[in-house]
Specification:
flat, APC_superfamily, transmembrane helix
């Protein structure tokens, strides 16, 4: 059985890898230039957004 990845699958893998790397490096870059209050506000907004996202998928 010969399994191959097509162009669209490989493109999706590359895009997801680039986004994933950015997710892990962005907080470090923001922490070096932002004030602690700005970082806390950012984490709070993100947390509230994640709660709304979880509630929207709740059964």
């Amino acid at each position: 059985m010969d399994k191959k990845l097509g162009l669209s699958s490989l493109t999706a893998i590359v895009i997801c890898s680039m986004i994933g790397a950015g997710v892990f490096s962005l907080p470090q870059n923001m922490a070096s230039v932002a004030s602690p209050a700005a970082a806390i506000i950012g984490w709070t907004i993100t947390g509230v957004g994640m709660i709304f996202l979880a509630l929207s998928f709740q059964k």
